[in-house]
Amino acid sequence: GDPAHWNTGCAFIDYDHDGRLDLFVANYVDQGRDFRLLPRPGSGQFCQYKGIPMACGPRGLGSGRNFLYHNHGDGAFTDVSEK
Protein backbone atom coordinates (compact mmCIF):
# COMPACT_ATOMS: atom_id res chain seq x y z
CA GLY A 1 0.00 0.00 0.00
CA ASP A 2 0.85 3.65 -0.14
CA PRO A 3 2.81 4.66 2.99
CA ALA A 4 1.13 8.09 2.93
CA HIS A 5 -2.25 6.51 3.74
CA TRP A 6 -3.38 4.92 6.96
CA ASN A 7 -5.02 1.58 6.10
CA THR A 8 -7.61 0.49 8.64
CA GLY A 9 -9.08 -2.66 7.25
CA CYS A 10 -9.72 -4.88 4.28
CA ALA A 11 -12.31 -7.31 3.03
CA PHE A 12 -12.52 -9.91 0.29
CA ILE A 13 -15.80 -9.64 -1.61
CA ASP A 14 -17.05 -10.68 -5.04
CA TYR A 15 -17.68 -7.05 -6.03
CA ASP A 16 -18.34 -7.65 -9.73
CA HIS A 17 -20.09 -11.05 -9.31
CA ASP A 18 -17.57 -12.90 -11.50
CA GLY A 19 -17.02 -15.71 -8.99
CA ARG A 20 -13.57 -14.44 -7.93
CA LEU A 21 -12.88 -12.56 -4.72
CA ASP A 22 -11.83 -8.90 -4.99
CA LEU A 23 -9.78 -7.15 -2.31
CA PHE A 24 -11.19 -3.95 -0.81
CA VAL A 25 -8.75 -1.93 1.34
CA ALA A 26 -10.14 0.90 3.47
CA ASN A 27 -8.08 4.01 4.17
CA TYR A 28 -8.93 6.22 7.14
CA VAL A 29 -7.29 9.54 6.32
CA ASP A 30 -4.65 10.91 3.97
CA GLN A 31 -2.29 12.55 6.43
CA GLY A 32 1.17 11.45 5.39
CA ARG A 33 3.80 10.59 7.95
CA ASP A 34 3.78 13.96 9.67
CA PHE A 35 2.37 14.15 13.17
CA ARG A 36 -0.32 16.72 13.89
CA LEU A 37 -1.01 18.42 17.16
CA LEU A 38 -4.47 18.22 18.63
CA PRO A 39 -6.44 21.46 18.51
CA ARG A 40 -6.06 23.62 21.58
CA PRO A 41 -9.04 23.88 23.94
CA GLY A 42 -11.37 26.73 23.05
CA SER A 43 -10.49 26.63 19.35
CA GLY A 44 -13.90 25.20 18.43
CA GLN A 45 -12.33 22.11 16.88
CA PHE A 46 -13.23 19.72 19.68
CA CYS A 47 -16.44 17.76 20.22
CA GLN A 48 -18.29 17.98 23.49
CA TYR A 49 -19.00 14.86 25.53
CA LYS A 50 -20.93 15.53 28.73
CA GLY A 51 -19.62 19.10 28.62
CA ILE A 52 -15.99 18.01 28.28
CA PRO A 53 -14.09 19.05 25.12
CA MET A 54 -12.35 16.13 23.41
CA ALA A 55 -10.90 15.16 20.05
CA CYS A 56 -13.42 12.87 18.39
CA GLY A 57 -12.56 12.26 14.79
CA PRO A 58 -10.78 13.43 11.71
CA ARG A 59 -12.12 16.98 11.61
CA GLY A 60 -9.83 19.12 9.51
CA LEU A 61 -7.98 16.13 8.08
CA GLY A 62 -8.21 15.87 4.33
CA SER A 63 -9.93 12.88 2.83
CA GLY A 64 -8.55 10.96 -0.07
CA ARG A 65 -10.24 9.42 -3.06
CA ASN A 66 -11.32 5.80 -3.27
CA PHE A 67 -9.67 3.29 -5.59
CA LEU A 68 -11.04 0.08 -7.09
CA TYR A 69 -8.87 -2.47 -8.91
CA HIS A 70 -10.12 -5.26 -11.17
CA ASN A 71 -8.39 -8.62 -10.61
CA HIS A 72 -7.64 -10.35 -13.93
CA GLY A 73 -6.97 -13.66 -12.16
CA ASP A 74 -3.39 -13.86 -13.41
CA GLY A 75 -1.70 -11.63 -10.83
CA ALA A 76 -2.49 -8.46 -12.79
CA PHE A 77 -4.87 -5.69 -11.72
CA THR A 78 -6.41 -2.74 -13.58
CA ASP A 79 -7.47 0.50 -11.89
CA VAL A 80 -11.22 0.81 -12.58
CA SER A 81 -11.86 3.57 -10.04
CA GLU A 82 -13.31 5.98 -12.59
CA LYS A 83 -15.77 3.49 -14.17
In short:
The chain is built from no helices and 6 strands. It is mainly beta.
Strand order of the largest sheet: 1-2
Q: Give the overall pLDDT as a whole number.
A: 69
- Tell me the structural class: mainly beta
Cα-atom Rg, whole angstroms?
A: 18 Å
**Number of E strands:** 6
The global form is elongated
Strand content: 35-45%
Report on the structure:
The protein is mainly beta and 83 residues long. Helix content is 0%, strand content 36%. It is built from no helices and 6 strands. It has strands spanning 5-13, 22-30, 47-49, 52-54, 69-71, 77-79. The radius of gyration is 18 Å and the shape is elongated.
Q: Which secondary structure elements does this structure contain, and how are they paired or packed?
A:
Blueprint: E1 5-13, E2 22-30, E3 47-49, E4 52-54, E5 69-71, E6 77-79
Antiparallel strand pairs: 1-2, 3-4, 5-6
List the main descriptive attributes of the protein structure presented here:
mainly beta, two-stranded antiparallel ribbon
